[in-house]
Design a protein that fits this description.
Layout (H helix, E strand, L loop, with lengths): L13 H10 L2 H12 L17 H6 L4 H20 L10 H11 L9 H9 L17 E5 L3 H13 L2 E6 L7 H4 L30 H14 L6 E3 L1 E9 L4 E8 L4 E6 L1 E4 L21 E4 L17 E5 L3 H10 L5 E5 L6 E2 L10 H9 L3 H13 L22 H18 L3 H7 L11 E2 L3 H5 L4 E4 L3 E4 L3 E4 L4 E3 L2 E4 L13 E3 L6 H5 L18 E3 L13 H22 L1 E6 L1 H16 L27 H7 L8 E5 L9
Helix pairs in contact: 1-4, 1-11, 2-4, 2-12, 5-6, 6-12, 7-17
């Protein structure tokens, strides 16, 4: 694990290179070959990959074996020539050239408007936006709340800018949600080589990283950047209040021993995450249950011991992403598993979910210049914005609940065929597992063995909610009682309560709850809000991803935007930077109007993206390319800018 700039390529091993190319992703090898040679003949019909329809098609490009061999042999020759030339810097390609290569290798059209973003991915441009050598940031201090992915990314940027800061973390280790969510089967539903920090490489063992490896990766990132020296662990923020007279925030904290402290800083950056506070239903009788009952994010360590689940009758309340990962992971160990499902989920097939990434692929990424970056760019197209146009409601579409447009209806047919194939002759399960709302109306899930689990003799699917907990089990909405030894509440998080449970008060003295409402947060770009100067929220309102892609990418865009805001404050020696009310109102009006045309506001279902009033507060309505553009730089005219009134207090 190392940065791109530190990695040195060993002298070429031709035999090893030849073997590795045969295991590589052929469309990615074509892209690498075009970069290495500048030869456009590799973009002719003989070498055109087909649109991938499965794991093997994705790897081979659907090309004949002799064509694949020709491509691999050419890569071997090109890499050998590159080494012979002294391993020069990679050839700089224009955005249009990169877009043309991706258009060809994707097996379908990639709009050229994506070329600037793809050029950034292919080029690996991840330099800090603010440098302590070019700007005087001595008037700035910061408190970062949270040491998950967002908080660590922000700390690295602040350090590069020379901004004195502290990171406060309520847990005992970095990682945020990945540190907390350690239940069996936990992992990502975005490909590992996309769900990763762009500047920090790793040899992922599987195509979809599992929790322990992701947590280890994040811990290694903290080690690489010596972040722990700037983090106070076991410290929770209770409140933050802005004092306009001195242009600073007073942040009140409480540590694990109950000791309180107040820190002052010019900037406060919230990196507490969206899926951070478990939503535990207020079920009557929970305190009376004689067995173990807990939220999925609070999985007891003792249940990881060998045999801890043997002979246990387990209930999972909920059937969303966490439930879908837990169920198949424990079904072999328990006596019985009962899933209480209020609403079925759309589930997509994925042959790569458990597939290992072999040593040959790791070798290619280390020794073939550009392979890693082109591979990530390819994933970025396949899993990012490609599906976004199909999420727009066709006002003339005749279906009331099944789908929202012709393409979406096609998705429904595809997922239904897969569901029926997997459940076979179990008509009862087919009926219970078929959603009555459009695909993508809720978070799409990947099949990790869920359907095959449902067919097991020791598994029961109950299509009802739990109404009450008894001393020995639960009673469902039909009044049926069942006994259990363990109840897992896979009931999600407070995804519509931003900055909860902190009491954050701005210039006016009003809290975020008073300004926004309990469940109706809004912010410009999801990052900053009027009345709260110098407060930046990472993973803020309407920034989660509902249509695909890597949320780490979104965090990198947000951190870059905040770094640009810091650069503006340093250049103009500002003490306060506050986004304008009209700018924020216009932006959020556009957000709501965009969501009104999308599947997530469809009346056929509920989802965790919306608040109780039906407004979407969690997810981004834009394509990732749109948000990438919006967050490229700060527009000074969007903000009220105040000169410094006094030098900052420096937190110790």
């Amino acid at each position: 694990m190392s940065s791109v700039t530190e990695r040195s390529l060993a002298p070429v091993d031709v035999a090893r290179l030849r073997d590795a190319t045969r295991a590589g992703n052929i469309p990615t090898l074509i892209a690498t070959l075009v970069e290495l040679t500048g030869d456009s003949r590799w973009l002719t019909e003989r070498y055109r990959p087909s649109r991938p329809r499965g794991m093997d098609d994705n790897r081979t490009g659907g090309l004949a074996p002799e064509v694949r061999d020709e491509i691999c042999d050419a890569v071997v020759e090109a890499v050998c020539r590159w080494h012979t030339a002294g391993s020069p810097p990679r050839r700089q390609m224009s955005g249009d050239e990169i877009a043309a290569v991706l258009d060809f290798t994707a097996g379908e059209s990639v709009p050229h408007e994506f070329s600037p973003m793809m050029a950034e991915i292919v080029g690996g441009t991840t330099e800090p936006r603010v440098s302590a050598e070019t700007l005087d940031t001595s008037q700035l201090t910061a408190v970062v709340i949270g040491a998950g992915v967002a908080g660590m990314l922000m700390s690295v940027q602040l350090a590069a800018a020379g901004v004195e800061h502290i990171v406060l973390e309520k847990n005992d280790e970095v990682g945020g949600s990945w540190w907390e969510n350690r239940y069996p089967g936990a992992g990502v539903d975005t490909p590992s080589y996309l769900y990763s920090i762009s500047s920090f490489e790793h040899h992922w063992s599987t195509h979809f990283g599992k929790r322990d490896e992701v947590q280890g990766y994040l811990a290694a990132y903290a080690d690489e950047h010596r972040l722990r020296s700037r983090i106070r662990f076991g410290v929770e923020v209770e409140s933050a209040a802005y004092d306009p007279a001195v242009q600073q925030w007073a942040v009140r904290t409480r540590d694990r021993d109950g000791v309180c402290e107040t820190l002052e800083a010019r900037l406060v950056i919230s990196a507490v995450g969206l899926l951070n506070r478990p939503k535990i239903p207020a079920l009557p009788g929970m305190d009376d249950f004689a067995g173990r009952i807990f939220h999925s994010a609070q999985w007891p360590t003792e249940l990881d011991e060998p045999g801890a689940l043997t002979g246990k009758r387990v209930a999972i309340v909920g059937s969303g992403a966490s439930a879908m990962q837990i169920g198949p992971a424990i079904v072999d160990d328990v006596e019985s598993l009962t899933v209480f499902q209020r609403s079925p989920q759309w589930i997509a097939p994925n042959d790569d979910y458990f597939a290992p990434v072999g040593d040959d692929v790791h070798w290619l990424m280390d020794h073939v210049p550009g392979y890693r970056e082109w591979y990530r760019a390819r994933l970025s197209w396949i899993f990012n914005d490609k599906v976004h146009p199909t999420l727009q409601v066709d006002p003339d579409w005749p279906e009331a609940t099944a789908s929202i447009n012709a393409a979406n209806h096609g998705h429904r047919g595809f997922y239904l065929r897969y569901l029926r194939e997997q459940l076979g002759d179990r008509e009862d399960l087919i009926e219970l597992s078929t959603p009555d709302y459009p695909p993508f109306g809720k978070r799409m899930l990947l099949d990790n063995g869920w359907y095959s689990m449902l067919r097991r003799d020791n598994v029961e699917l109950i299509p009802r909610a739990v109404e009450k907990v008894t001393q020995t089990g639960v009673i469902d909405a039909d009044g049926s009682a069942r006994d259990f030894d363990i109840i897992v509440l896979a009931t999600g998080f407070h995804s519509d309560r931003f900055l909860y449970p902190m009491d954050v008060r701005g210039r006016s003295g009003r809290s975020t709850v008073e300004v926004w409402g309990e469940n109706d947060a809004f912010a410009y770009l999801g990052i900053t809000a009027p009345d709260f100067p110098n407060l930046f929220v990472l993973t803020g309102p309407n920034t989660a991803l509902g249509h695909g892609g890597s949320f780490i990418s979104i965090l990198e865009y947000q951190v870059r935007y905040v770094a640009d805001a810091i650069a503006l404050m340093a250049r103009e020696r500002l003490g306060a930077l506050e986004v304008r009310h009209d700018v924020t109102a216009d932006y959020n009006r556009a957000v709501d109007e965009a969501h009104a045309r999308m599947v997530w506001t469809h009346p056929a279902m509920t989802n965790w993206y919306r608040n109780d009033d039906g407004r979407v507060v969690a997810v981004l309505p834009w394509r990732i390319i749109d948000y990438w553009r919006m967050t490229r730089s700060v527009e000074p005219a969007d903000f009220v800018r105040e000169p410094i009134v006094r030098l900052p207090y420096r937190p110790s």
